[in-house]
Amino acid sequence: MNIFSVLAVNEGDEDNVPDPVVPYYAIYKEGVFLHRKTQIGNVLVRQTSLPTNATLAKLGNANGVFQWTGEKIPGKIIAQATDFFTRIYDAHGTEAEVIITMHNDTGEFRLFVPYQRVSGTGVKSLFDAAHIDKNYTVVGSIHSHCNFGAFHSGTDSADAADMDGIHFTIGMLKSNPPQIVAMAVMNKKEFHYSDPNMVADVVFTGETAPEWWDRYVFPGTTPDTKPKGMKTTTQHQWDVFKGTIPQHVAKTPTPITTPKNYGRYMPMDTDWENPWGDYVTRMLNRQPNREQRKHPHPQQQVIPFQPTTESRLFNQKKKRSRAVEFNQTPEQLAIDSMIDEAMKQDVIVASDWLLIDAEEMDNITTWRELLLNKLDTICDILEMVNVEITYVAKEATA
User: Fold this and answer.
1) Domains of the chain by start residue, with CATH
2) Full-prediction pTM beyond 0.85?
């Protein structure tokens, strides 16, 4: 079996490349060169192609391999986080999060508590980089799943994708012992551990978390004004953290210039005085008390952080009028009926609207994919309690 290494070399460093104890590839602007040693000297030979599968050993993992080389995270860190999570769950019935930091010289681990907006099914955190001791580096996170099973949800994976490090989820806080899972994330690739004890001494008791940590947890409304101590955090970042503005601003919807599908979801900045002449006048006169049906698009309407079915978004959607259904297609009527029933049953929640663009509101395929993704998630969760679900989707028709 041939053994090769990959080395990136800057232009002009030909004399400084390592001695080829074994052959290796060097990358230059001119291309990829094989560097090998002969009896009479070392040679760099340009390659017209990279090695084939026949000459390379199999790694066994398409994502790559992560090898933990440092000291295990001590049990007191896990125990302190568990105590904090349990206290928050008892007080508010919500999740919580802590950040794992490590001393650059001694390798000592300690926890850092960020500002966090929490609910029973999620946590969004924010911290000022200046608040992390300059001698410490962020190396991961731990968050709770209340009294649900410990697993890495799709949201957890998305959050961890932006933070290289080790990430733990602790669930079943009221069980003895609780559940814990671990994964490392590097360059947006996940490396899951079948046994968290491989990277940490898993101990759930014996340590307590300071009570002042609780002041950084917001189970309801967060302060409107950014704390003065957050010097490197902008007001915009704080507003995104609060949930008053979307994290990703969608493109401006194309203005509607014809009366096609009038009465469906319209941009809020439409000139309602006389955009289409007598057509609008006739419609408004037909239903003088009719409210404008507003599209809950994140760019057009602020969606407050309120994880209850009594939020303003839900109330607004429940009141929308059926006065112009005569101008709707069967597909549009099916979408409206689906939205009404899904919201009554809490299947569609406020955060789901952030996934729907303005031009997709009347596309039934968009709603099918959203609901099928929810069904897949539920099936995955049920498998954790030994319930296997099999479903067959009907063939989609236009």
Assistant:
1) 6-55 (no CATH), 75-242 (3.40.140), 278-383 (no CATH)
2) no
